[in-house]
Amino acid sequence: MASQADSSGVISRRSYRLKPGHEVSFGTYFNAFPASFWSAWTVCETVRLAITVSGDGALRLYQSDAAGAALQTTEWAFSGDDQHNTFDVPLAGFFDGGMVWFDVAAHDTPVIVEEAAWQVQSAAAEGTASIGITTLNRPADVLEVLRQVMADEAVSRRINRIQVIDHGDQHLDDLPDFPKLKADCGAKLASIIREQNLGGSGGATRGMMATVDEGLSDYHIILDDDVQLDAEAILRMIEFADHCKEPTLIGSHFMSLLEPTRLHSWGEVIDRTRFFWHSALPEENAHLFSRVPLRASPALHRRLNVDYNGWWMELIPVSVLREVGFSLPLFIKWDDAEYGLRAKEHGFPTVTLPGVAIWHVPWTAKLDALDWQAYYHARNRLIAALLHPADATPTATRETLTSTVKHLLSQQYSVVELRNQAVADVLLGPEFIRSTLASRLDDIRTRQAGYDDADIRPAVDSFPPVNVQRRPRLPLPQSVRNKAWLLLLGFTNLRPTHVASAPNGVVSPLSIGWNDQWAKLASLDSCLVMLPSGSGVCWYRRSRPVFLRQIRETLVLYVRLHHRWRDLANSYGHATDDLAGYESWTDVFAHTAQAGRMTAKMAPTRLDSIDTNETNHSSEASL
Questions:
Q1: Which residue has the higher pLDDT, 3 or 116?
Q2: What is the DSSP string of 227-279?
């Protein structure tokens, strides 16, 4: 039986040595051919394995179906040096799923796989791409990515232009190694664009617009600044796009930079009932290939449809940009998901292609739903739901309300403050999004300051010692106990606050505030919260006055949002083409370049000025 490849057998990027008596499988994530994807999305009818080997051994060609069941289709016995052969595999039977791969066995002598390649043929011309990288104070990372691209001749040949959009104060062209990189890139590297921080959507759009304006390339590739990649992933995306039946957005998978063989998601979809993103294959989340290789993972042999791909790396045909437009001015969060949904509504699918991946710090090691980004998570999700409603019922409002209440019971008052501000801003209508693109970040950071849960310190000893609080278990059946416990938590927040001068416990969940972790936090009057990856500690403390104020604000805002959902959906829908259009973004860039800081066209709404009378909407919060 074939084993996983031993790294000691690697001779070069394209060649591998097998010891006598050993058999190695190339049915791996990066080496297997995703036949079902090519069958479903491209015009290609056959894939060819071209291989050159030396030594005395055998090659066995396998293919799988959508259930992962493997079938050996060919065996070739070889002997001698530089033995070359080709094997053609029809793609007609792979629509719903299936991979193609080969194993090599060495007999009595070592075997060297000199080179192997999957080849397809069609009348499609070779396309070229431009790359857009938005960076915020990660110049060394960008430098390394560009080195990788330029070092691979096959990849660099297909790249016409590289746009670097610099939002920070640490610049790529200030690095001592930059002159050499610039010389290596030549005319491919455009002048670096320095602009005020307009977030991922602003940086991505600046790169998109440059590619459209120059007219040099068939595709635009969005690439994150803090990724590691094998440049061949770019080539694979371009090759796949060249052969697609129709213009198609091609995305990459996300591998963990902390555990390089861990794949975090096989594809991204939007639950249109709750309007929330999730994995297309949740049972394989965080799949570890070092433990369970591809050929032993039946679920990964299925062909999955996705709604969008994250903008850590994605290829978008220029023809799609011309028809669909650019990103909405959302700053960060949901810009990629919304764009995928918008492209699909225009008839352009997204494919997340196996064998194409980048490495990035996983989102499970971050806490962006509880810091200043909580505002963008909540606001932009609602905007996306308004633009792409599955039905007339605004289920997203109920889901958002439930999540906000959980944060409130968890003493995450700064998060509730930002989430409520997000709803208030959505109520202001679509123009507010663009007019505050450059200024809103400072506003929400100011609003967050002063709350205990936003006061992050480096270690536990920055706070008083823990005085453990123990609550008796309720002597009730489990089904009754859960409801009684929820009721008790509600009353806990209504009673006068008597928080001790020391924390009552320590909580260290992987992702605080999600799933069932909120109940643990809600059961304590105060606690130290350990943030993921040792990034810090904060002290949550219950406050009755804050709770009462925020629960009132929350209910008022969500009643208004639910009541006005249809009118807001019409307003945002009518404004989409303008917000994502060329002229709108040209105006945004012109204002930020001229003023250094965009002047808001309408003043930010302060939550402490909202009218608590549900039937008396303030003029600021009406369209």
A1: 116
A2: -EE-THHHHHHHHHHHHBSS--EEEEEEEESSSTTEE--S-EEEETTTTEEEE
End-to-end Cα distance, the chain: 68
CA distance linking residue 463 with residue 541, whole number of Å: 12
Report the share of the chain in percent with pLDDT over 70. 85
Q: Note the pTM of the prediction, 2 decimals.
A: 0.90
User: Which of 56, 218, 335, 336 does the annotation list as catalytic?
Assistant: 336
Which residue, among 197, 250, 198, has the nearest Cα to 221 in the 3D structure? 250
DSSP-assigned letter for residue 352: E
Q: What angle do CA 137, 142, 143 make, to 5 degrees?
A: 115
Residues 6+ apart with CB under 8 A from 326: 204, 205, 208, 209, 580, 581, 582, 585
Query: Which H helix or E strand runs over 153?
Result: helix 153-156
Residue located via tokens 């999957």: 118
C-alpha distances out from residue 58 to 81, 82, 108, 216, Å: 13, 14, 11, 46
Annotation marks residue 82 as catalytic: no
Tens digits of residue pLDDT in 33-45? 999 999 999 999 9
Within 8 A by CB and 6+ apart from 183, the residues are none
Q: What does the pLDDT read at residue 486? A: 60
Q: Coil, strand or helix: which one is 385?
A: helix
User: Where is pLDDT greater, at 509 or 424?
Assistant: 424
pLDDT confidence of residue 609: 40
Task: Tell me the pairing of strands 506-507 and 526-530.
Answer: parallel
- How many CB atoms sit inside 10 A of residue 518's CB? 22
The CA-based angle 44-47-49, given to 5 degrees, is 160
Q: What is the structure's pLDDT at 521?
A: 78
